[in-house]
Amino acid sequence: MLEAQRYKTDRNDARGLAQLVRSGWFKPVHAKSDAANRMKLFLAHRRTLKRKLMDIETEVRHSLKMFG
Fold first, then answer.
1. Largest CB tally within 10 Å, which of 16, 31, 55, 67?
2. Distance of alpha carbon 27 from alpha carbon 32, whole angstroms
3. Are 24 and 1 in contact (CB under 8 A)?
4. Collapsing DSSP states into helix, strand and coil, what is residue 25?
């Protein structure tokens, strides 16, 4: 329905979305909570930090093997 619009403007998009809501042509979606998004972000940062720590440990181990 929105693809058939001749001119794509914010006003026309809003009008088309309102028509979809009125006609019932939408599927309800589940939005994750802020707490869930924050936890996902913290876990991603933790994973990145663990990888960096392992990289540094490997570099030190390699240096010690070469010069130690």
1. 16
2. 16
3. no
4. coil
